[in-house]
Design a protein that fits this description.
The complex is a heterotrimer of chains A (191), B (244) and C (797). Chain A is an alpha+beta fold. Helix content of chain A is 34%, strand content 23%. Chain A folds into 2 domains: 31-102, Phosphorylase Kinase, domain 1 (2-Layer Sandwich); 108-190, no CATH class. Chain A is built from 6 helices and 8 strands, in the order ααβββααββαββαβ. With 797 residues, chain C is an alpha/beta fold. Chain C contains 24 helices and 35 strands. The longest helix of chain C has 19 residues, at 433-451. Chain C starts with 12 loop residues before the first strand and ends with a strand. The chains are: A alpha+beta (191), B alpha+beta (244), C alpha/beta (797). Chains A and C meet through strand 1, strand 2, helix 3, helix 4 and strand 4 of A and helix 11, helix 16, strand 12, strand 13 and strand 14 of C.
């Protein structure tokens, strides 16, 4: 062991005189001040959000750069009564979701038998998907079963998702799926 | 003015590692490449990129299994020995208002060996490329604008606390008394010497060898300076002048 | 959750069983810790010593899947020692109801079992009723066929030694658990249960939870502060997505999806509108037609509810074995589906039996995958064992915005609907999911309008513009629609509500088409007073402050009631059983505290208003596998028999006959289980792609005991292979005393566990999903797969 208790205490005592004069030069803290300044209204917009992971529903404060429109800091909301500013490892890392180079930038399409995705436009992707939905639905739609009862459904398209959607999106999604006649509708709550 | 102090109640820590990530988030410290080494603790050790680390330790104490968690950081010594080991003016700053011990880019000009050896808790780490030495700076930028350090803000269980030293010492005493009901061996770790006061439910060395500077079992990994060398350095009048 | 996160602080005994709250709901420990600081005892019962166990006052290890033995033993302990809260049990539960004389239970089977269909005819489980249809009751609880007596009879078999032998808990541990928890049966004491997938992911998942709910009813712990039955939900909006009913069997607000036999709206509504002649039964579901008709009116605003009903698809039945997840993939593997939307999901890693799932994806013509990051589902065609050339499935990957890049609400486990605002932009124009679905449906509608097609009416008549403003998805507009509007001027109780004004609450919803509401449960969430979910007012009355109630912060369903069944927290005079922790109390003229379960004066209505007869269900005649929980082994298990009957498994469990199960199979001698860690989330798609989190938990691991490691010659930290009947994965061995062998019926049984967060796409040496190991078997009520108990082997790589 490099230092016993007596040693450390003695060290403390002899050094006491000098530390009282310790000061902090501005030049060395320029960077640190910037981080705090970035949270002021001159530099960033502040919004509140709720954590996207588990269902404790912790509140967070997001600061978004007025210049880049990207998040500069995301931390717990001290006013929120459930978490009172606290966050776990996941909640504390949400900043890395916004600014993350692993996120694909455009829709991707993989053709039958192909060994790669290719980048495609939103317009092309949505129109092509709409055509697949319509073709499959039209070919598989059953209005009446063998007993002549109205069933108005397709058993050839299924949907999975999602507990990661907002309430409003969930509602819109179920409305869309049910108007198309889907019955195989499932999501995370089932597993 | 007694400055600021952390009080860290290890009996309440769940190792959620919110503090470990909140620290990186605030400072935008890069992630390290790691592997699972048969432990949940990762990264393996403190580094220039990881200045706060939750250490995990399994111990059987009196026949019962305990999983001990120790969120480690610079202790911000009341009298920081690392500062005494410096040669360069302004490389290590001892902030008057808070007592924070702050390393600047000028630490690149210091002897890393000396700085690290001076630390009874084996905290400082060097960026191998720039030579700059890193460790916790008490989130001095946050503290100056009235915010809690990122690690304290993120803590859910009341493990991490921060405030005026007087208040934290009072809180530490109160919690120590409460903790002794469940943990008869509970103790405050090096409370007079540091600004990060841990409340340990069991003997400090059961958590980690250098949780306390004084634990008999505490093997500081690097070969230390001897006492004479250390005191000689400290008492070098020229260096004392530069700090003043 | 019947209660909410902050309320955990009010508990005198927190039982965490079937969950690892400290790791998977870390901030819950703010409130668990606070309860402990106030003197509460924290008990953790789990196969593995976790970060939760590390903080517990008592930890007991049980073999995965043996929960009903332990809980059944607790019911016996309560009854043997007469620890029930009798006034509560008599007034608020169905313990006094007399059950049909045809009811029977013999050797693990309830009356009405049909081995051919592996299902029950539940007729004989019915209550005996009087001429009015009101259940016959015996408040003395002495009638030999009353629920209380049947309960006694059923659980007398759950003797301490038997429970110990099958679960691995020692007699001492069991007695300590029972004694400590049942002490909350006193009027002013409250015990709470925090459970999660450790209870649901079993072939007896529903009965695990029912068993605990029954204990809570016997001890008078439901409706009170610090009590309740609390499912810790694992995703930020899994409560909301369930409320909005992205599930085959329910429509928004837990209304029923129409069946083939319900050809008209009237037939449907009549079938699901319960009738009670008991004047004290609020029988809330009598309002079913108002809610159903208002829902239909919100989706197709120009149509009558009756016409709109015709447009809804009709299912053949509502059996999980027909439509739920496991069967969906089984049918996909058989080629039934041409197209699949995998929207914000990664089934290639999340469902049981991943190899089967991934193989099934190759049988599709097209797959639409909406996600933030590359994932094992959208990229399945280039995964392990796949030959892209042979896979015909077209894949469309649509990159979506993350939560902070859009606006809308999510509902937490405590049913708080909380509004989120948009912060940053998505960096490259990735779209919010709402925009994607709006634009996609617009394309589809355009095609049907232009070209016609099969039965276009539900599509072309859909009120799709109601969710957008100037062609852009509008979360506020949808939130208002979910709340609901008056469709014409309506006079209710002397007040006129103009067409187009927001409905104040679901008590105002109408059957006649004069109101629309996308989800009756959320009616009251966005009213003329504003967006209730966005409220940030921490003010509270002194009573509310006592129990940590924040009625003005966000909004909570139903009608901002923060603790469900709260009429059971008071006696017949409206006086709180726990005066120091009152949820509601009657001040002589009105209720104060929380929003009560209906404003009726105390004693005038039964407490459990959502039940037809108004009582908490100790006897639950609606379940697929029996009215009372019975012990069965997981479908893969290490024993040939158990002490409670000769019926080894749940006779109604969902399974596929062509898939083998390992029962006492020497090739797979160890119990396996799956779980999560704090640092990752679900299949890890979001967390594996973030540096700080993958740094903390970089690779798939398997936790095993030192004893097992020694037996297999495994060193801590080395890569090992874990095998099951379904497949094999490598994992880094964590050899730890936190895992221990169990003594099961005199035999040493080892258990191992793995996280299911990993997948082959990223990081490169992170490993693959633990669901490669798990079986396609599930609970007969919910269809949830049994991924918490299955059999594996572990060997050196």
């Amino acid at each position: 062991m490099s230092m016993n208790r007596r040693h450390f205490l003695k060290l403390s005592a002899t050094a006491a005189a000098v530390t009282a004069f310790g000061g902090l030069g501005c030049r060395h803290t320029a960077q640190a001040v910037d981080r705090a300044t970035m949270l002021t209204p001159e530099w960033s917009k502040q919004t509140t959000t709720i954590c996207c992971y588990c269902a404790v529903g912790c509140g967070l404060i997001v600061n978004t750069s007025l210049k880049t429109k990207m998040a500069v800091n995301i931390e717990g909301d001290p006013d929120h009564p459930v978490n009172e500013g606290a966050l776990c490892a996941k909640g504390a890392s949400i900043w890395q979701l916004n600014d993350n180079e692993r996120r694909p930038a455009t829709p991707l399409y993989r053709a039958p038998g192909s060994d790669k995705f290719k980048e495609v436009s939103w317009e092309w992707a949505l129109e092509q998907i709409a055509r697949r939905v319509k073709k499959t639905r039209d070919e598989s739609f059953v209005q009446r079963n063998a007993q002549g009862q109205e069933i108005n459904r397709t058993d050839a398209i299924a949907s999975l998702g999602s507990a990661a959607l907002d309430n409003e999106e969930c509602w819109a999604y179920q409305t869309m799926l049910r108007s198309l006649g889907l019955v195989y509708i499932e999501h995370q709550a089932r597993i | 003015m007694d400055g600021k102090t952390f009080f860290v109640d290890l009996t309440k820590c769940t190792a959620c590692r919110g503090c470990q990530v909140a620290c990186k988030q605030w400072k935008k410290l890069p992630a390290e490449e790691t592997v699972n080494r048969g432990s949940h603790q990762n990264p393996e050790d403190l580094s220039d990129k990881t200045i706060r680390l939750v250490r995990f330790q399994e111990q059987v104490i009196d026949g019962a299994l305990h999983w001990l968690f120790f969120p480690e950081q610079c202790r911000h010594c009341v009298i920081p020995p690392c500062q005494m080991a410096t040669y360069e003016e302004g490389s290590i700053i001892h902030d008057e208002a808070t007592g924070a011990v702050i390393y600047t880019d000028l630490t690149a000009k210091e002897s890393f060996e000396d700085i690290r050896d001076s630390c009874p808790y084996n905290i400082p780490r060097q960026d191998p490329e720039t030579g700059i030495i890193y460790k916790c700076d008490m989130c001095i930028d946050r503290v100056r604008v009235g915010k809690l350090p990122a690690c304290v803000q993120s803590c859910p269980t009341g493990t991490m606390n921060f405030g005026d030293r007087e208040d934290m010492l009072k809180l530490a005493e109160k919690r120590l008394n409460e903790a002794r009901e469940k943990y008869p061996e509970a103790q405050l770790v090096d409370p007079e010497d540091v600004r990060v006061i841990y409340l340990a439910g069991f003997a400090p060395e059961l958590y980690y060898a250098t949780l306390s500077a004084y634990a008999d079992a505490s093997p500081i990994r690097r070969s230390p300076m001897n006492k004479q060398q250390f005191l000689a350095k400290m008492n070098n009048p020229a260096r004392r002048m530069t700090r003043a | 959750m019947t209660n909410h996160w902050i309320d955990i602080q009010n508990s005198d005994c927190v039982l965490i069983m079937g969950s690892n709250a400290a790791e998977n709901h870390p901030i819950s420990f703010k409130w668990v810790t606070r309860a402990q600081e106030r003197g509460a005892t924290l008990i953790h019962v789990d196969p593995r010593f976790t970060r939760t166990s590390a903080k517990a006052d008592m930890y007991a290890g049980l073999r995965s899947g043996s929960d009903i033995a332990v809980l059944g033993g607790m019911i016996k302990y309560i009854l043997d020692n007469d620890l029930i809260f009798k006034e509560y049990v008599v007034n608020y539960t169905n313990a006094s109801f007399v059950v049909s004389k045809d009811y029977d239970f013999k050797d693990g089977l309830f009356s009405g079992y049909n081995p051919e269909t592996r299902s029950y005819d539940k007729k004989s489980w019915a209550f005996e009723t009087d001429a009015q249809g009101v259940p016959v009751q015996d408040a003395s609880l002495k009638h030999p066929r009353c629920v209380y007596q049947l309960l006694k009879q059923h659980y007398q078999r759950y003797e301490l030694d038997k429970v110990s032998a099958i679960s691995g808990l020692s007699r001492d541990e069991l007695l300590r658990l029972y004694k400590t928890y049942t002490a909350t049966g006193k009027a002013d004491k409250a015990g709470t249960i925090m459970y999660a997938m450790g209870w649901t992911q079993h072939t007896v998942g529903v009965q695990n939870i029912r068993c605990m709910a029954m204990i809570q009813l016997l001890l008078g712990n439901i409706g009170v502060a610090g009590g309740g039955v609390n499912a810790l939900r694992g995703e930020s909006n899994v409560q909301g997505s369930t409320d909005q009913c992205l599930l085959y069997h329910i429509l928004p607000g837990y209304l029923k999806t129409p069946l083939v036999d319900e050809q008209t709206l009237e037939m449907h509504n009549t079938k699901y509108t319960p009738v009670s002649k008991d004047p004290k039964s609020a029988n809330w579901w009598q309002n079913y037609p108002k809610y159903m008709n208002s829902l239909l009116k919100s989706m197709w605003q120009e149509a009558t509810p009756a016409d709109a009903y015709r447009w809804l698809p009709k299912l053949d039945n509502r059996n999980a074995s027909e439509y739920a997840w496991l069967t969906l993939f089984d049918k996909m593997d058989d080629g039934q589906f041409k197209g699949l939307f995998s929207w914000g999901m990664n089934p290639a890693c999340s469902g049981a039996n991943s190899i089967k799932t991934r193989q099934a994806l190759g049988k599709l013509d097209w797959l639409v995958n909406v996600n933030i990051f590359p994932n094992e589902t959208g990229w399945f065609w280039e995964g392990p064992g796949m030959n892209p050339k042979e896979i015909k499935t077209e894949v469309f990957f649509l990159p979506c915005a993350v939560s902070v890049e859009k606006e809308g609400s999510v509902t937490n486990s405590g049913r708080w609907m909380q509004w989120r605002y948009k912060g940053p932009d998505a960096p490259n124009g990735q779209k919010p999911d709402g925009d994607i679905m709006y634009e996609l449906m617009e394309e589809i509608r355009h095609l049907y309008t232009k070209e016609g097609g099969a039965y276009p009416e539900p599509i072309t008549n859909l009120s799709w513009d109601a969710i957008a403003t100037r062609g852009v998805f509008d979360a506020h507009k949808v939130a208002k629609l979910i709340n609901g509007y008056f469709t014409r001027d309506v006079e209710i109780k002397g007040k006129v509500y103009k067409k187009g004004t927001l409905v104040p609450s679901f008590a105002f919803l109408q059957e006649d088409g004069s109101t629309m509401s996308g989800n009756w449960l959320y009616c009251h969430s966005y009213t003329e007073k504003g967006n209730m979910a966005a409220r940030r007012d921490p003010s509270q009355t002194p009573e509310q402050a006592k129990i940590g109630l924040y009625p003005n912060w966000s909004w909570c369903w139903p009608v901002n009631r923060r603790i469900l069944y709260n009429r059971a927290s008071v006696d017949m005079q409206g006086k709180p059983y726990a005066p120091e922790k009152p949820v509601i109390q009657w001040d002589g003229a009105k209720w104060v505290g929380d929003v009560p379960d209906g404003g009726w004066a105390p004693g005038t209505k039964h407490a459990f208003i959502m039940r037809k007869h108004g009582h908490g269900q100790i006897f639950g005649p609606g379940r697929a596998d029996g009215p009372m929980p019975e012990y069965y082994e997981p479908l893969e298990c290490p024993v040939k028999s158990h002490p409670f009957s000769s019926q080894l498994h749940n006779p109604t469990a969902i399974s596929f006959d062509d898939e083998q199960k390992a029962v006492c199979d020497p090739r797979f001698p160890f119990v396996g289980t799956t779980y999560r860690v704090t640092e990752h989330w679900q299949t890890g798609v979001m967390t594996r792609n973030q540096g700080w989190l993958i740094e903390a938990e970089p690779q798939v691991f398997v936790e095993l005991s030192p004893e097992l490691a020694q037996m297999r010659g495994i060193e801590n930290g080395e890569k090992v292979m874990v095998d099951s009947l379904r497949g094999s994965i490598w994992a880094v061995a964590i050899v730890t005393k936190r895992m221990k062998p169990f003594a099961i019926q005199g035999v040493e049984v080892h258990q191992v566990g793995l996280p299911w967060h990993f997948g082959w796409t990223w990081p490169k040496d992170g490993g693959d999903s633990a669901n490669i190991l798990t079986p396609s078997v599930g609970d007969p009520n919910t269809g949830i797969p049994e991924t918490k108990a299955f059999m594996v082997n572990v060997r050196k790589a």
